[in-house]
Amino acid sequence: MKISHLFLTACLTLIFTLINSTTMAQTTGNTTFTKQSADKWVKAGTWANGLKLKPHKSVNSIEFAEQYSKNKMAWDKAFEFMKNTDLDTLKPGKYELDGENVFISVTEGPTKLIENAKWEAHHKYLDIQYVIKGKEKMGIAPISTAKPIAEFDDKKDVGFYTSSAETEKYYVAKPGTFFIFFPSDAHRPSIKVKGCDTDKKLVVKIKVG
Q: Which of 5-9, 11-15, 45-49 shows the lowest mean pLDDT across its residues?
């Protein structure tokens, strides 16, 4: 009986430790995703909390899932704003959702010729970019293949680059689908699409977890 009691106590202690460790991992966002589990998580859509907009196919699902897990409250505030705000009538300007942790910029104006659109990337923040009205082309390439053309501006959290044509991909951004650019992405937004000279766009800046 003494051995059984000790064994039972050890088992209960182990179970408690495992449960506690799992809870802590979920709380602190230490969740590891595979491509398969991340794609499944994105498709399930619980992160959207009723938001009808969809992530573009270019979005890195693993980065999306892991960053959301690390900073769920910030992402939820962003998606709640996008769901509950009449974006069509929202005036251009800056909107703070959580101080410098989550904020939004809304712009409306002409898009650029491709030669005037720069490749850029950020260290401290990731971008959710959504075209509310009109269209624009966006480029994306791995930052690992890009070369800086100037010293990174830490204060503005932006660096500008040239990219290798072999790694560049371009997509047309339009209402209904949002893009997400992580620090691992160089991106080239605001490129003019034939037949559409202007657009209205929302950019959410979320501090990287």
A: 11-15
Q: Can you say whether the dihedral through the CA atoms of 46, 50, 55, 59 is positive or negative?
A: negative
Listed in order, strand segments (DSSP E) in the chain are 54-55, 93-98, 102-110, 119-121, 125-134, 136-142, 147-148, 159-162, 169-173, 177-181, 185-191, 198-207
- What's 92-135 look like in SS3? CEEEEEECECEEEEEEEEECECHHHCCEEECCCEEEEEEEEEEC
Q: Which two tokens stand for residue 138?
A: 């966006």
Residues in the chain: 209
Residue 188 three-state SS: strand
Task: List all residues 6 or more positions away from 109 whose beta carbon is below 8 Å from its beta carbon.
Answer: 198
CATH topology of domain 34-207: Jelly Rolls (2.60.120)
Could you tell me the two tokens for 130?
């959504």
Count CB atoms within 10 A of the CB of residue 55. Answer: 19
Task: Give the helix, strand, coil percentages of the chain, each rounded to 5.
Answer: 35, 35, 30
Whole-number pLDDT of residue 4: 53
| Domain ranges across the chain | 1-30, 34-207
